Amino acid sequence: MKPDLQGRRILITGGAGFIGGNLAHLSLQNGAERVVVYDSLTYAACPETLASIEKSDSFHFVQADVADEESFHRCLQVEKPHRVFHLAAESHVDRSLDNFTPFLHTNIHGTRSVLDATRAWVNKDAPEDFLFLHSSTDEVFGMLSKEGSFSESTPPNPRNPYSATKAAADVLVETWAHAFGIPTIISHSGNNFGPFQFPEKLIPLMIQKALRNEPLPVFGDGSQVRDWIHVHDHVRALCALAEQGKPGSRYCISSEDEHTNLDVVQTVLSCVEKSHSEIEFVTDRPGHDFRYASSNKKICEETNWSPLYTNFRKAIQETVEWYLSNPTWCRAAETQSNYHGERLGLAGYREQSEE
Ligand code: NAD
Ligand code: TYD
After folding, report:
1. Per-residue pLDDT at 54
2. 132-147: per-residue pLDDT in tens?
3. Where are the beta strands (DSSP E) in the chain?
4. What is the per-residue pLDDT across 38-82, written as a single tens digit (0 to 9) for each?
5. Which of 139, 243, 256, 278 is flagged as catalytic?
6. Residue-wise pLDDT tens digits, 153-205
7. For residue 276, is pLDDT > 90?
8. What's the N-to-C CA distance of the chain in angstroms?
9. Residue among 261, 264, 267 to mutate when testing ligand 2 (max atoms within 8 A of CB)
10. Across the chain, what does the average pLDDT equal?
């Protein structure tokens, strides 16, 4: 069987970010004819992520905003992709608690803009089996208590500003698909980790702080549960859906690998051989969702995908080694973003508690 995306022209929005960057690498490895990354390069982007592929004749980078409908439409007309993977987003919950404006701009207005550009193009110039894949999150489903899991039929119930914008984007995608005949797939992934993740998210932040001998801030009591997936498994799932998924469907992408935040932080500490006393329990995140978990039954049944990273400790160890072996990337991510590991997400909280 030929690798997924072999011979395809693909367009990835947000491809200078964590998941989109890993997807660009895998698509080229799988023999895609052309991989175009469309990204405005926000603080979360790291152009170094694409350094090893940017000289490939099959690769092209466009620096532009997804909310620029004309520019996105032009890109579609020129590149004629078989697949659009829409990953560009503001992706950090804590930042959405501090300042909602960029989330509204990119996740909602930006998604509306790429959908309208696609709508104007899809019935004229698009390849016959064109597909638009939208990357959503398990967070749109709300939160779970200790039992049960989300599935594709779980109704949306977002509970933080980030997930509210992602749920809104999902509604736009399904509405535009229905009203204008755009073939779409929506995927809902759990929490990712692995190479090229910007160190504001839990795992890379803890790795960097542990390596710098700084305290590791665990929000609340660390009992919250997330469903973790290695980014290589996630991007393999996206490629599988691009070839084997049913247009008009939603799929949960999950390794069904749940861990409490405290367990994750202790695993990072043991991988860097530091003592658990480095952990600092800090003020909880406002509105902190207790647990996310999704079933992977549908994607495993309908495609040939299944997760390969099934040993969490080993996967974290490999991730620690990746950060240790890539100091240039780490420095570039920090310098370009001007983010140095400060606590985020308490701006509104502090104001309220001072009233
Ligand atoms: P990221 O924050 O690492 O990267 C986002 C990328 O989008 C950056 O390169 C940024 O420059 C780009 N971008 C932001 N605004 C843009 C705009 N207006 N125009 C063009 N480009 C813009 O995000 P990620 O972790 O790679 O997540 C990718 C997608 O997957 C997002 O849609 C996110 O909601 C979704 N997702 C992420 C996770 C996770 O654990 N990281 C889990 C589930 C779903
Ligand atoms: P995060 O990586 O921000 O992803 P998300 O909010 O999308 O799940 O956080 C993962 C979990 O880790 C979440 O429950 C919040 C918690 N967390 C901490 O305890 N300390 C931290 O410094 C960060 C960034 C997150």
Report:
1. 96
2. 999 999 999 999 999 9
3. 9-13, 34-39, 59-63, 83-86, 131-137, 184-189, 191-193, 216-219, 225-230, 249-253, 258-260, 279-282
4. 999 999 999 999 999 999 999 999 999 999 999 999 999 999 999
5. 139
6. 999 999 999 999 999 999 999 999 999 999 999 999 999 999 999 999 999 99
7. no
8. 63
9. 261
10. 96
Name the residue type at position 200. Answer: E
Catalytic residue among 48, 79, 138, 256: 138
Q: Are 193 and 231 in contact (CB under 8 A)?
A: yes
- 138 as an active site residue: the answer is yes
Res 355: pLDDT? 42
- 292 annotated active-site: no
Question: What pLDDT, on the 0 to 100 scale, is given for residue 1?
Answer: 83
Q: What lines the ligand 1 site, CB under 6 Å?
A: 13-14, 16-20, 39-42, 44-45, 65-67, 87-89, 91, 106, 110, 135, 137, 166, 189, 191-192, 198
Considering 79, 90, 162, 292, which one is annotated as catalytic? 162
Ligand 2 centroid – CA 201 distance (Å): 6
DSSP-assigned letter for residue 40? -
Task: Note if 139 is an active site residue.
Answer: yes
| Rounded distance between C-alpha atoms, residue 281 and residue 272, angstroms | 20
**pLDDT > 60? residue 100:** yes
Angstrom CA distances, 102 to 98, 99, 166, 167, stand at 11, 7, 13, 16
Overall fold of domain 9-353: Rossmann fold (3.40.50)
Q: Is the pTM of this model over 0.90?
A: yes
Sheet harboring 59-63: ordered strands across?
Answer: 59-63, 34-39, 9-13, 83-86, 131-137, 184-189, 249-253
Domain residue ranges in the chain = 9-353
Closest-lying ligand 2 atom to the alpha carbon of residue 288: 14
Picking from 208, 187, 201, the residue whose alpha carbon sits closest to that of residue 254 is 187
**pLDDT computed for residue 350 by the predictor:** 53
